[in-house]
UniProtKB/TrEMBL annotation:
Gene3D superfamilies: 1.10.287.130, Histidine kinase-like ATPase, C-terminal domain, PAS domain. Pfam families: HATPase_c (PF02518), HisKA (PF00512). Its EC number is 2.7.13.3. SMART domains: HATPase_c, HisKA. InterPro entries: BphY/WalK/GraS-like, HATPase_C_sf, HATPase_dom, His_kinase_dom, HisK_dim/P_dom, HisK_dim/P_sf, PAS-like_dom_sf, Sig_transdc_His_kin-like_C. Residues 1-22 are annotated as: Disordered. Keywords: ATP-binding, Cell membrane, Kinase, Membrane, Nucleotide-binding, Phosphoprotein, Transferase, Transmembrane, Transmembrane helix, Two-component regulatory system. PROSITE patterns: HIS_KIN. GO terms for cellular component: plasma membrane. This is histidine kinase.
C-alpha cells in the first residue's frame, strides 16, 4: 500500500514544484483548443453585438471594442488558474471527466489513475484506491503518494510531458516489488478535441522477481555442485602429476576417487538435463498405457546390487490384475529409481524396503493407482518434509554427497508426477522410516495402448 504524504508536507505544499511545471501547464494549451473552448462565447457575443449595432443601440466601434474584450477574456488559458498547485484549490469538473473515460479507467485490470496535466486525479479505479487509499479524485496525486521515487517520477512526467517508469518496494500490507508507469495520453474532451493527461498504472513485479531470484539461486547452486567434484578432480590430477607420480598404490586409490567424482558430475548433468526436459513438456500429459508392475520389478532388479551392498531386502507387493496408467515409460523409470534408491541409501538401517501398488476406485469412475515406497530407517524430521522436493535441498548435505546424491532426485520426481497429473505424498515418523507415495489418476478412455 502506498502511504500518503505527511500532513506537514501537505500543508506546505510538499517539496517545491519545479517552476517548469506551471509554465509548461500554461503554455502547453494549444491555440486551436482554446479557440474551440471559447467558440460558443465568441459566437454568442458576436450575435448579440451585431444585433445591438443593427438596432442602433451601440455604435459599430463600441460593439467592436466590446467583442475584442470578450474575446480576450474567453481566450485566456483557463488552466493558468488551477495550476496554482494548492491543495484547497478544488477545480470544477474537467472536460475529460466523461463517463467513457471513467469506464475505461475503472475497467483496467491493474491499479490505474488518470491525472490532469497538473497531476490532479481525474479518475481512479478500485484497485488503485486499494493500493493507494490516500489518492482522491480532484486532489493532486503528488500529495497523496509519499514514496519519493514515485513523487519524483510524477513531477518529471508532468514537467516534461514524457513517460516515466519507476520500480519501488511497497511495504504494506505485504512486501512486494511494484512498478509504476506514467504515460502521457491525449484524452478526448466534452468540447471536442483532446486534452493531455497522465495515465498512472501500477504493476506487481513480485512474481517476476521471485522467478528471477529462483533462477539465479538455481544457477549458483548448480555451479557450486559442479565445482566441488571438479575441484577434487583438479587436485588429484596435480597430485598424480607431482608428489604421487611414482606411487602406484596412491595412483590406484586416487584414480578410484576421481572416477567417483566424474560419475557424480555426470549424474548431476543428467539430472539437470532431465529436469529441463520434463519442465519443457510439463503441459503435455503423457498418453501411453503402461502397466506399473513390470516397470517396478525392472527397477527393483536393477537396484538389487545396491540392496545387497547395503544389506537391505526389497519386498514387492503387486495387485493380481495389471495396474495400467497413462504415462511416459522413461520418466516413470526415473521416478521409481529415485524413490527406491533413496530408500535403500537413506533408510538402509531399517534392513528392508517395501514397494506396493494399490488400486483404489476413483470418484469419477476408473481406478487410481498408488505406488508406495516405504523404508524403516531413521525417517525425516517434520520440518524438512515440505522442502524435500526443492532443487538441491538435502536434510544432510554431507550424507547426500557421500551417497553420490545430487539433491535433484525428488525435485525431478515431483515434476514428472505433476506432468502425469498425479500427486506425491511424503510421510515420515522419525526413527520409524519414511513412505513416499505416488498417486496416478485413472486412465482416460482415449489413451492409446
Ligand atoms: P539426493 O540426491 O540428495 O538423494 P533427493 O532429492 O533424492 O536428493 O533427496 C533429497 C533429500 O531428502 C536427501 O538428501 C535426503 O536427505 C532426504 N531423503 C530422501 N529420501 C529419504 C529417505 N527415504 N529417508 C530419509 N531421508 C530421505
Amino acid at each position: 500500500m502506498i502511504a500518503p504524504a505527511s500532513d506537514e508536507q501537505a500543508r506546505h505544499g510538499g517539496p517545491p514544484v519545479p517552476a517548469a511545471d506551471k509554465t509548461t501547464v500554461a503554455a502547453a494549451t494549444p491555440w486551436a483548443d482554446r479557440l474551440r473552448h471559447a467558440a460558443i462565447i465568441l459566437l454568442a457575443a458576436a450575435i448579440a453585438l451585431v444585433t445591438l449595432a443593427v438596432l442602433g443601440e451601440v455604435t459599430v466601434l463600441a460593439a467592436g471594442a466590446v467583442f475584442v474584450c470578450v474575446a480576450a477574456a474567453a481566450l485566456v488559458p483557463w488552466r493558468l488558474h488551477d495550476a496554482a498547485n494548492k491543495r484547497d484549490d478544488v477545480p470544477g469538473t474537467s472536460p475529460v471527466e466523461t463517463p467513457v473515460v471513467r469506464a475505461i479507467v475503472a475497467g483496467m485490470p491493474d491499479p490505474a489513475a488518470l491525472l490532469d496535466r497538473a497531476g490532479r486525479v481525474l479518475h481512479l479505479n478500485a484497485a488503485a484506491a486499494q493500493l493507494a487509499p490516500a489518492l482522491r479524485v480532484r486532489e493532486l496525486a503528488q500529495f497523496a503518494l509519499r514514496n519519493p521515487e514515485i513523487v519524483n517520477a510524477l513531477r518529471e512526467a508532468i514537467a516534461t510531458a514524457e513517460p516515466r517508469r519507476v520500480s519501488y518496494l511497497d511495504h504494506a500490507p505485504i512486501e512486494r516489488w511494484m512498478e509504476l508507469i506514467i504515460a502521457p495520453v491525449q484524452v478526448p474532451t466534452t468540447f471536442g478535441g483532446t486534452d493531455q493527461c497522465m495515465l498512472m498504472t501500477f504493476h506487481d513485479l513480485t512474481p517476476l522477481r521471485r522467478v528471477e531470484e529462483m533462477r539465479a539461486d538455481f544457477v549458483a547452486n548448480a555451479s557450486h555442485e559442479l565445482r566441488t567434484p571438479l575441484a577434487a578432480l583438479s587436485g588429484f590430477i596435480e597430485t598424480l602429476q607431482g608428489p604421487a607420480r611414482d606411487d602406484a598404490k596412491a595412483r590406484e586409490r586416487f584414480l578410484g576417487i576421481m572416477q567417483a567424482q566424474a560419475t557424480r558430475m555426470a549424474r548431476l548433468i543428467d539430472d539437470l538435463l532431465s529436469l529441463s526436459r520434463v519442465e519443457l513438456s510439463a503441459h503435455v500429459r503423457p498418453d501411453v498405457q503402461i502397466d506399473l508392475a513390470p516397470l517396478i520389478r525392472q527397477v527393483a532388479d536393477g537396484l538389487e546390487p545396491l540392496a545387497k551392498e547395503r544389506q537391505v531386502a526389497i519386498e514387492i507387493d503387486m495387485p493380481e490384475t495389471p495396474a495400467v496408467i497413462a504415462g511416459d515409460r522413461e520418466e516413470l523409470l526415473r521416478v521409481f529409481e529415485n524413490l527406491i534408491e533413496n530408500a535403500l541409501k537413506y533408510g538402509a538401517s531399517g534392513g528392508r524396503v517395501a514397494v506396493s501398488v494399490a488400486a483404489l476406485a476413483s470418484g469419477e469412475g476408473g481406478t487410481e493407482y498408488r505406488v508406495a515406497v516405504r523404508d524403516f530407517g531413521p525417517g525425516i524430521a517434520p520440518e524438512h518434509l515440505p522442502r524435500l522436493t526443492e532443487r538441491f535441498y538435502r536434510v544432510d548435505v554431507g550424507d547426500s554427497r557421500s551417497q553420490g546424491g545430487t539433491g535433484l532426485g525428488l525435485s525431478l520426481v515431483k515434476h514428472i508426477v505433476n506432468r502425469h497429473r498425479g500427486r506425491l505424498l511424503i510421510e515420515s515418523v522419525p526413527k520409524k522410516g519414511a513412505t513416499f507415495t505416488v498417486c496416478f489418476p485413472p486412465v482416460k478412455p482415449e489413451v492409446r495402448a
